[in-house]
Structures are given as structure tokens and as C-alpha cells.
Write a structure and sequence with these properties.
Organism: Streptomyces paludis
Strand order of the largest sheet: 1-10-12-11-13-16-14-15
Distance between the termini: 35 Å
Structural class: alpha/beta
InterPro entries: M28_fam, Peptidase_M28
GO molecular function, one term: metalloexopeptidase activity
CATH topology of the largest domain: Aminopeptidase
Number of domains: 2
Number of strands: 16
GO biological process, one term: proteolysis
CATH architecture of the largest domain: 3-Layer(aba) Sandwich
CATH superfamily of the largest domain: Zn peptidases
Protein name: Zn-dependent exopeptidase M28
Length: 421
């Protein structure tokens, strides 16, 4: 997921809002969602050979082929929708940063103590210079303020004109203890930029910093994987199930499995496709879209939404992002295209109540927003993950119960949507 903001307070569970009035529906037969198969799909997406599934990598291409084979094995006929990606941030070699100074004298640990900055200019060779808060010629300039926006670009340009060799900035670690890995960034500034833990930025000031962070921006081609299960009424409005399969990619020498974000949602969709393809046909067609480029700014869903609008289709969209950890309730973001209680809201609410899975309204900042912006009724569903954009986001930290609940909720919602009116 590109950004996570969970509003844990001040929200009512959907099952306690106007959407959930009345008794819960009577329990029906459960779909045979096979958690073992879903976990096997997830693990296959997270092996080191998949290289963290960043667009433009050989591992990403392996993941694409694997998912095509998974959907084909489920009896579907997937097609690839390709789109251009301007640039994926990628390290071409293990980064290095060492400090010699009065407060600190040692090599630092990449990703735990220092990291590449997405606005950095290329750094083809090591840069060694004193670190100064005065932005002196021939020095690294220590900047403690924001490193975003046009103001930072203008500051970097003024430093470059004064002969500064680079910029050192602060970056806080996430809950995993790592400096978050990013695969997209705006236009680079005129100088190399290296990020440090805030307490280390203080310690390196006044010392000599030697850094080599070979960050490059590589054009890539994204690939959405789309397959449709026909319905008994082929002209009926389709149901669209989506999840992104791309990840942030591995570092040189360090693997990022990207299990919770979002091999988990991808595995749920693959198993959902298998279950529905072997069941009696539904009245409405169901399209499965395994989306690419979410970590690049939801590029794949933006491309797919445009394709649907050009074909004058308006599906009900359910997006699953992060289904690796169940925190007692499931976050749901409803699209602005469907502000009043409608079929999609009613289907989610009824399914949650029938299964005993509490739902609550909260931000889910993922591909669902692209479909909502295109005018489609949409909902983003997120259970959570133990870690985010971290080497610790591994299959061992995935809760089987969370995957199972996400699968049950998805299947029940589809069946509710497809039920005769």
C-alpha cells in the first residue's frame, strides 16, 4: 500500500451504522476457501527469486508468469494489460556510508541507520567530505527541515551553486525499526541526498562522511493481469475484484518478501478465483484484476480504470490490500462515487454480519481510490500486516486466520452482489 493511515478512533463499525440495521442474515453454506492453497500462493510470491516484485526486475516478471499460471490453472483465461512506468528507484549495488568524527567513528548499517533518499541526484562514485550545518563549499550540508516540495529543490540548487557536495537529512524509522524503502520519487534535486536516523544526523555533524548510494531511476513496463468469469447474464453489470501484486523490491543483499503488502491480497484473489470457477455460474460476470504499479502511485489501477471507462463499463469494485493480520475488525473505505447505502455497501455489511467479521469505516489508501475517482462504486478492504515495506514483512508473520477471513468476506460479498434482485 502506498500510504497507511488507520483511523482507529472516532469511527463506528459499519455493523452499527445505518448500513447494518436489522437482524443479521441467516447463516448459509460456507464457500470452500482453501487456506492451505492461499498460503502456498503467498509463499511462492515471497521467495527470494521474486526479488520483492518491483516492476522492471526479473523477479517481478517471474511473479507475473506465476500468477498467469495460477489463474489459468483455475480455469480462467488471463490477459496482460501493459502500461509504461517512467522510473522505478533501484539501488545498483550495496550502499555504503562511513563516518569519522568526534562523536561517531564507524560504518553505518544500510536501511537501519542510513538510506537512499528518493530525491537524490545520481551518485556514481563515493563522496567524502565534512558534514557541516553551515552549508560550506566542499562539505555535506546538514539539513534538519523538510526534504520535500519545491522549497527543498530550490535549497539544493542554491547549495550546488555554492559548491556543497551533497545533503544529509533526517528520516525516522518505522515500527519495524527500518528506514522505509521507497520505489518512486519526484524529479531529483541537483545534489546527492542521504537520509539518516535523526539521532545519527546529530552525531555525524562535524565529522567526515563518506557515502556511496548508487540510486538510479529505471523505466519499466507494468503488467495488470485480468481475467473474467462469465455470468449467466452476460450483459449484467460486472463485479470487479482487485489486489496489487507488485512490491517495493529487494535491496542488494537483503530480501523484501512483501508478504502482507500485498502477496496476502493477491493470494486471496487467486483462491477466490479458484472457488468461483468451480462453482455454479453467478448471474453477474466477475472480473479478477491483479494490479501492478500500486507502489509507484497506483499506476496499474489508474490504467485499468481508464480502460473500463473507455469501454463504458461501471463495475462494483472490491479491492483487497493487506490481509495478513487480523486486529479484531476490518477497515473499509467506501468510494465517493457511492455516498449513499447501495448494493456494494449492503453486500459488504450483510456479509460481515453473517460471518461475524466486524467492519469499520477507515482510510484504505490503495487502488480502490483510482476506481472511485473514475466514478465506480468501490470499497477498499484492509485487515493489516505485521510490518510494512520492511524485510520483516515475511510469510512467517502472516496470520492464516486473517487470510481466511478476507477470503470468506470476499466470497460472501460477491455472492450477495450476484444474487437475484
Amino acid at each position: 500500500m502506498s500510504r497507511r493511515r488507520r483511523a482507529e478512533e472516532g469511527t463506528l463499525p459499519m455493523t452499527e451504522t445505518a448500513y447494518g440495521q436489522g437482524p443479521a442474515p441467516a447463516p448459509g453454506p460456507a464457500d470452500p476457501f482453501d487456506i492451505r492453497r492461499a498460503l502456498a500462493t503467498l509463499r511462492a510470491l515471497c521467495v527470494p527469486e521474486m526479488e520483492g516484485r518491483a516492476p522492471g526486475s526479473a523477479g517481478h516478471d517471474r511473479a507475473t508468469r506465476f500468477l498467469v499460471s495460477e489463474l489459468t490453472g483455475a480455469g480462467l483465461s488471463p490477459v496482460l494489460e501493459h502500461f509504461a512506468i517512467r522510473g522505478v528507484l533501484r539501488l545498483t549495488a550495496p550502499p555504503y556510508c562511513g563516518v569519522e568524527g568526534p562523536e561517531l567513528a564507524r560504518d553505518l548499517v544500510h536501511r537501519a541507520e542510513f538510506a537512499e533518499h528518493p530525491r537524490s541526484a545520481p551518485m556514481p562514485a563515493p563522496v567524502s567530505a565534512p558534514a557541516s550545518e553551515d552549508a560550506l563549499p566542499g562539505c555535506w550540508a546538514v539539513v534538519r527541515g523538510s526534504s520535500q516540495g519545491t522549497a527543498f529543490a530550490e535549497l539544493a540548487a542554491s547549495f550546488a551553486a555554492r559548491g556543497v557536495v551533497g545533503i544529509l537529512v533526517a528520516q525516522h524509522a518505522d515500527a519495524s525499526g527500518y528506514l522505509t524503502k521507497r520505489v518512486q520519487g519526484p524529479t531529483p534535486v541537483r545534489l546527492p541526498v542521504v537520509a539518516f536516523l535523526p539521532e545519527l544526523l546529530d552525531a555525524v555533524t562535524g565529522g567526515t562522511v563518506t557515502a556511496h548510494v548508487p540510486l538510479e531511476r529505471v523505466p519499466a513496463v507494468g503488467a495488470n493481469i485480468v481475467a473474467t468469469l462469465p455470468g449467466r447474464a452476460p450483459d449484467a453489470r460486472p463485479i470487479l475484484l482487485t489486489a496489487h501484486y507488485d512490491g517495493v523490491g529487494s535491496d542488494p543483499g537483503r530480501h523484501f518478501p512483501c508478504a502482507g503488502d500485498n502477496a496476502s491480497g493477491t493470494a486471496v484473489l487467486c483462491e477466490t478465483a479458484r472457488v468461483l470457477s468451480r462453482a455454479e455460474p453467478l448471474d453477474r460476470p466477475v472480473t479478477f484484476a491483479l494490479l501492478d504499479g500500486e507502489e509507484m502511485g497506483t499506476l496499474g489501477s489508474g490504467h485499468h480504470a481508464r480502460q473500463l471507462r473507455e469501454r463504458k463499463l461501471r463495475p462494483d469494485v472490491l479491492n483487497i490490500d493487506m490481509a495478513g493480520k487480523f486486529n479484531g475488525k476490518v477497515a473499509v473505505e467506501l468510494g465517493p462515487a457511492d455516498p449513499m447505502p447501495g448494493d456494494l455497501i449492503a453486500a459488504l455489511d450483510a456479509s460481515g454480519r453473517r460471518l461475524g467479521i466486524p467492519l469499520y469505516a477507515a482510510p484504505v489508501a490503495s487502488d480502490n481510490r483510482r476506481y472511485a475517482a473514475a466514478g465506480f462504486p468501490s470499497a477498499g478492504v484492509g485487515l493489516g500486516a505485521a510490518h510494512y515495506h520492511s524485510p520483516l514483512d515475511s510469510p512467517e508473520r502472516i496470520e492464516a486466520d486473517a487470510l481466511h477471513k478476507a477470503g470468506q468476506l470476499t466470497l460472501a460479498t460477491v455472492r450477495h452482489l450476484a444474487a437475484p434482485g
